[in-house]
Amino acid sequence: MEESEAAHNIFPCISFSSSQRASSQSQPLTEKRSQRVQHLMMSPFGNWFSTCLNKSLPLETQHTLLGREQMFWREHHNEGSSSQDIQRQMRQINWDKGRCKPVNTILHGPREEIRDICTNPNSINVPCKNGQDNCFEGPNPYSVTVCREKGNSRPPDCRYNCNKEEQVKVTVACEKKQPVHLEGIHRVIQ
């Protein structure tokens, strides 16, 4: 069995031969290649590709390839809210990290509505925690799931206590009119 065939059996997402690996490492990430990766992320194969990418590349490289917007969606959005959906997403988030992410908030709601927080005239521009002025609190409340790591777990077997919260206002940081960072949440007082 060749090295590339053995690697493919262990990592079915990766199918480069040695020569392809060497040539791909020397190629700079062009705008066109980045756009192709982003297009693939939005396709029906996006979840599979995200899982494969998450297993095979360092986080810094993922940020470069996917862009901050795609990383936002991968870590903070899931229209499904079943326990299985959330635990699967948390495993994907932590796959390549050296430690389990202590807290992660997942937004449940239509992607378009969440994206519109950055451009909705009823969103409120609020100061970001880092002092920048590109954070916006959306006008609509959402359902969210907040996951807190149980402690003493290690990737890829990170364990979480996840609790669903209703009627939560969301604040995101925006770049180029797209959400790139979940700045915070707070409950709506009724």
How would you sum up this structure, described in words?
The protein is of the alpha+beta class and 190 residues long. It has seven helices and six strands, in the order H-H-H-H-H-H-E-H-E-E-E-E-E. Strand 2 and strand 3 (135-137) form a beta hairpin. The N and C termini lie far apart (64 Å).
List the topology elements:
Layout: H1 3-10, H2 18-26, H3 31-42, H4 46-56, H5 59-76, H6 83-94, E1 103-108, H7 111-115, E2 124-126, E3 135-137, E4 142-149, E5 160-175, E6 178-187
Antiparallel strand pairs: 1-4, 2-3, 3-5, 4-5, 5-6
Helix content: 25-40%
In terms of DSSP E residues, the strand content is 15-25%
Please compute the radius of gyration using only Cα atoms. 18 Å
User: What's the number of structural domains?
Assistant: 1
Number of continuous helical runs: 7
CATH topology: P-30 Protein
- Compute the number of strand runs: 6
Q: How do you describe this structure in short?
A:
By secondary structure, this protein is α+β, with helices and mostly antiparallel strands. It has 7 helices and 6 strands, in the order H-H-H-H-H-H-E-H-E-E-E-E-E. Helix 3 packs parallel to helix 5.
Relevant terms:
190 residues, alpha+beta, P-30 Protein, 6-stranded antiparallel sheet, 7 helices, 24% strand, globular, disordered N terminus
